[in-house]
Write a structure and sequence with these properties.
Belongs to the polycystin family. Its main location: membrane. The chain is an all-beta fold. It folds into 2 domains: 115 residues, Immunoglobulin-like (Sandwich), CATH 2.60.40.10; 101 residues, Immunoglobulins (Immunoglobulin-like, Sandwich), CATH 2.60.40. The model has no long low-confidence stretch (mean pLDDT 88).
Length: 270
Amino acid sequence: SVDSSRITVSKAVLVEGSQSFGLSLTKGQRQSNASVGITVVGEALPACSIDTIFTTKFNANSKLTVQGSVQATIDEKATGTWSEDYNTGFESSSELSSVSSTAISKNVLGLTSSTFYLVIPAGNLIAGADYSFRLSASFTGSSTEAASQLAVVVNSPPTSGVLYAQPLSGSVLVDSFSLITTYWADDSEDFPLQYEFFYYLQNGSSTICDDSRGTIVRILRSSNKVGGLILPSNPDGNITVGVTAYDDPGASAAACSTVQVAELEASASE
């Protein structure tokens, strides 16, 4: 029995699960009863969530931005930390930290919440790889953590494409050229492809296919061929003709070929 309006129950006698506490008041022959039910959890945890959702593949040449949040549910400081579970290119948290534009770990004061961003600049994810980014949070001194995860599938660009040019040589302003591209391979869900045809003046004997140098002659079309092209001459070498193939999520790859375009020879008038 107690003679007080308050009773304190030691945590040593509490076990996880639902428990009921009863109170009986007696005065003379009169008695009144009351009870209350509580649920005891093993240890308080911060609230942790990832708010970003990707419904399609992610392109490696794009910046990755993931938004999460951590809430300190009790009056204790919590720490939130980003990590990558599959170790795909990030073997440790320090490697993830070295490429992230934002801090991968920060503190949250008790009974407050904070937004956590993970920003990875373009070019740091591996095409075709699967990533599992994880936001975890725990209270200071606790080994138990709450966590939320986000799966990111990085798109692979089309591969194996070739470009054919007809004819392989001609004269400027006289002969027109046709280009056709084929044999592109990609994941079935990434079709259809679109094509962008280009050309540029080739210097020397270089065989590098560089679509960033190209003069665009046809912009993003579903047809894999183009005809009637009038190309300039190049006294210093051949003309590189090329195509950039884009899959449906936006990844791209290029294929090139070369043609010779001769200048017209002036004829002597009689």
